[in-house]
Amino acid sequence: xxxxxxxxxxxxxxxxxxxxxxxxxxxxxxxxxxxxxxxxxxxxxxxxxxxxxxxxxxxxxxxxxxxxxxxxxxxxxxxxxxxxxxxxxxxxxxxxxxxxxxxxxxxxxxxxxxxxxxxxxxxxxxxxxxxxxxxxxxxxxxxxxxxxxxxxxxxxxxxxxxxxxxxxxxxxxxxxxxxxxxxxxxxxxxxxxxxxxxxxxxxxxxxxxxxxxxxxxxxxxxxxxxxxxxxxxxxxxxxxxxxxxxxxxxxxxxxxxxxxxxxxxxxxxxxxxxxxxxxxxxxxxxxxxxxxxxxxxxxxxxxxxxxxxxxxxxxxxxxxxxxxxxxxxxxxxxxxxxxxxxxxxxxxxxxxxxxxxxxxxxxxxxxxxxxxxxxxxxxxxxxxxxxxxxxxxxxxxxxxxxxxxxxxxxxxxxxxxxxxxxxxxxxxxxxxxxxxxxxxxxxxxxxxxxxxxxxxxxxxxxxxxxxxxxxxxxxxxxxxx
Length: 481
Known about the structure:
Layout: H1 3-26, H2 30-35, H3 42-53, H4 60-67, H5 76-88, H6 92-97, H7 103-111, H8 113-146, H9 150-198, H10 201-212, H11 224-240, H12 242-249, H13 254-271, H14 274-285, H15 294-302, H16 305-343, H17 349-372, H18 378-391, H19 393-402, H20 408-427, H21 436-457, H22 468-480
Helix pairs in contact: 1-9, 1-16, 3-9, 3-12, 3-13, 3-16, 4-14, 5-11, 5-13, 7-8, 7-19, 8-9, 8-16, 8-17, 8-18, 8-20, 9-14, 9-15, 9-16, 9-17, 10-14, 11-12, 11-19, 12-16, 14-15, 15-16, 16-17, 18-20, 18-21, 19-20, 19-21, 20-21
């Protein structure tokens, strides 16, 4: 068995140890469990936000794209995510000021129960599948370097991720995410030049690739249309996705939320092209391999054992951090938006924490079940899930903070018509190269303003504000009238 496997096992054991320590020292109530006590500083927030968003797609996936049809321009996949996070920084003050716990909670304040139910279901379904996808990605990586059968590895991965998330909630996730992001960024930054040197240096790489496919050395092979589409997609998913927005809710204050977001965007932009260069090292030397094996093969062929182990531990860190982020996000959604809102509104704080831990275990087991089914196409389902989660709620959520004349039916129309349009556009094969997420958001925005303006013109009062204090004040004024 390759020594890299033991490095990964030691890494996973360390994550559980950190979670145990944090759970006893930091978790005192449900707010600690779900929002880290709203105490994340800028560095902690930047680290946990980046770790949640840099997953298998931003490591193995980027290297695979670089080996495949995108070449060096595959780095834009992560850089675009960094730009998307930068744009979310301008929404961050609204998110933190809301004093909310979940995205559907904000929509419920402004647009009522129907909007809340739809967005809760969409968000839960997406995070559920996303957790399974990251567990499966982690298992595939470990299986590659260990030779252990897929079922055994997948069970171990699911148990480890579920255990350290369940022990301390967002507090333990945040602390382990800091370790994850150090492994991902520092580990890859150290490993990349070593792998590049072992592969013969940039001159050898560019000469070998130039002889076969010189266009793959270009920075814009992917095309500006795709780059701009990725930026828009990431801005929309990061500003409405529970796994990302929950970090903004957990920031110490508004200034921290904004600064942490800026730092995260810078970190992701700097990291972006590192896995792409590793993918090019594989492209220059290995013909006809599975693109998903580009990074593991380059690391194990062109780097010493310790560095190869560092690379693979970095990839495992990326996928595990995304899995835990999805898991705590889905747990918070279920506990706050289903259990506490509709099942047991008077639940004690201790009961909420216990239910949250139970939900994490159930979600972890269910994700394991999906991950073990090799007949399920996780990636297409995952992309479709993120599209459906964000396309409809996007306009209602974002404009709900700043447009005072939004009505309840305007928000509901945006969610319903935007989601339906995205689904139909995906079914039609995304005509004209326009992403389903983009098309759905355009329809969502049009429906939001059209219905709101129509109702306002007919004398329908605007929906109450989404910000917590403003929402309470609006309700008081309504009662006085």
